[in-house]
Amino acid sequence: MRTVHRFHTGLLLAGLSLLPLIALAPGSAIAAGTLQRSPIAGNAFAGSSVNVVANIRQSIASHNGQQFTAFYDVDGFMVLARRALNSDTQPSAWETHRTSHRGNVADAHNSISLAIDGAGFLHVSWDHHGNPLNYARSVAPGSLELATKSPMTGQREARVTYPQFFPLPSGDLLFLYRDGRSGQGSLVLNRYDTATQTWRTVQPDLISGEGQRSPYWAMTVDARGTLHLAWNWRESPDVASNHDLAYARSTDGGLSWTKSDSTSYALPITAASAEYAALIPQNSNLMNPPFITTDSASNPAIVSYWSPKPDAAPQFQIIHHDGKTWQQIPGPARTDKFSLAGTGTKRPPISRALLLFSSSAKTSSLHLVYRDDSRSGRIIIATRESIPDSVWRETELTPDSVGAWEPSFDPVAWEKFQQFHILVQRAEQRDGNDHTAAPTPPEKISVLTWTP
């Protein structure tokens, strides 16, 4: 069951609970139940979804009262941005810095990932689809100016895809990426030591496709510092060969890994040794990668979409570990059918989704965020008041279409302030085409902030 709500400026529709989209002056108080949009720039590249592809870690990140993000401009140059941020007032205006680094923006794989270490240095990685590592660190804490591009460890850095940063409670960083190519790759894990300002390899081959398949993965670090890793397998470059959802966790920064029952893994993890949270056949319209988060008890929850049976419409599903077993929670019901197959960046009618848990004294709510073309391409946040509840309350966060947009968010702002910050831009994406951008003019790029 689901109910629908909308955010629109100055509109109130019968039967719908609406909240306004507002722009507050700097220093104004942020009220619960509001939605704000903070413009960054008006010249973001929009011919592919490279600026707003799903599950970037991180596309937007906070540290010590500052928030950072990055995007490619209309000429393909990487632009870094920064603003002051706190929990009680409207953030300050964005300051931007156009770097000398360019990306192949026609290919949406070449997204930008960033993080801030415990000393305040900004780390950035960009423009990767099976090519040598592009990585740089800021010249000073809090600075938008990058030092010269450099290697991390110099090992297994020739065929990098899907770079992602993860801050640890200690202030160190983890960096994960695929070494190899679609359908034939392995997962590499590096660690940055903030005290020595050096990188080292923790796992050169954490998950191995054994030369036959590739893992498409997502990770999160919970409040206790535990790493939770989820992935699906792909047998070939064809997305139709995606199958299954697997899980692993680490309590020592990635040195050793276990299943959910604390059984130790022998590394690398393979298709034969993996724990499976859900068994999903090939040709099920399973999208990659999944998204993973944890509830207030640090139990993992994995999100993806697939068709539960042949010829059925793909549905969002949450696979949640309740402390004993994996439980499946259906997302909002969908009836629109489509087929997910082929190579290259796909342009399906729904985006990948992310999941947030918010807790009160009485319950723990679930919030699923995605874009749906059946809802005129708007951003949707679907809320379920508790896991036992069966009703999803859907709210439209944007009045207009965002094109091929997909969600990624600032996990620190959510954890510290219970504010949901996402990078938003209308973008187009040619289905299966990573070589030619859509003939689309530049678009505004902004940060949308929702406070429950």
TrEMBL record:
InterPro entries: WD40/YVTN_repeat-like_dom_sf. The keyword Signal applies. It comes from Nibricoccus aquaticus. Residues 429-452 are annotated as: Disordered. Transmembrane segments: none annotated. Keywords: Signal. Residues 1-31 form the signal peptide. This is Neuraminidase. It comes from the Bacteria.
